[in-house]
Design a protein that fits this description.
8-stranded mixed β-sheet, alpha/beta, Spore Coat Polysaccharide Biosynthesis Protein SpsA, Chain A, 8 helices, about 250 residues, about 25% strand, two-stranded antiparallel ribbon, 12 strands
């Protein structure tokens, strides 16, 4: 299956401190983008990175060390949905069977999970989207499901939604069929408005919207720690320690 990876990476990483753009922050001595490029090598044929204009030049310099990387820019921080949609022209030019999306800070994802995600694409050919999910206490994101197990809603703490004590959330990795990306996502993007709490156009509400129209499948993650995105120095320390311990066992 021909796949393209889209990495929305326009965040400046202000909560991490320092002057390094977030996607180029070092984790175990290497930029986040290097971790992701190596992790997804063998699963995707090309990578599209969406960067902020203030550091797009630095990302392009990084990209010259890699193969099959396209860098585009998001001038205004209007949300993940708009960042992802900026990859449309590049995706359409490559006409992949599938488009995988990952947040730039999800560097702790395990290859075992990606292997099962690729297998699920074969096993569930009718699924418009497949994503790994994780059960966690005090969730930041939670998917509601109906009695048949279909995702029917999304709750987001940052939007002020009432959250359950334990929930099911994404882990920042999504596998879309190529037609889902080029056909369904633009329709959703033409309808969605900015969130009340964030004033941004978010991607995650696309999941229940799509599930009401097409098949959306989920698989369990391999380890709950895969869900940790690096937004603060504390999270950077946690993910770094986990990667270090994994390498020590190899």
């Amino acid at each position: 299956m021909r796949r393209v990876l889209v990495i929305p990476a326009a965040g400046r990483g202000s909560r991490l401190g320092g002057n390094t753009p977030k996607p180029l922050v070092l984790v175990e001595g290497r930029p986040m983008l290097d971790h992701l490029a190596d992790l997804y090598d063998g699963f995707v044929e090309a990578v599209v990175v969406i960067a902020h204009p203030s550091f797009a030049g630095d990302v392009r310099t990084w990209a010259r060390r890699r193969q099959r990387v396209i860098v585009t820019e998001q001038a205004q921080p209007t949300g993940m949905l708009d960042a992802i949609c900026l990859a449309t022209r590049a995706v359409e030019s490559m006409r992949p069977d599938a488009v995988w999306i990952t947040w730039a800070d999800q560097v702790g994802v395990l290859r075992e999970t990606l292997v099962r995600l690729a297998g699920a694409e074969v096993e569930r050919p009718a699924a418009a989207m497949i994503l790994p999910t994780v059960r966690t206490p005090d969730p930041y994101i939670h998917f509601d499901r109906d009695g048949a197990g279909r995702i029917t809603g999304l709750r987001q703490r940052r939007e002020g939604d009432e959250m359950p004590a334990e929930g099911e959330s994404d882990m920042g990795v999504f596998a879309l069929r190529g037609t889902t990306f080029t056909s369904d996502l633009p329709v959703f993007a033409g309808q969605v408005i900015a969130g009340i709490g964030t004033a941004e156009r978010n991607f995650l509400p696309f999941i229940p919207w799509l599930a009401a129209r097409r098949e959306v499948a989920t698989i369990p993650c391999t380890d709950p720690r895969e869900r940790i995105g690096i937004n603060t120095p504390e999270e950077l320390a946690v993910v770094t320690a986990w990667i270090r311990s994994r390498r020590a066992r190899e």
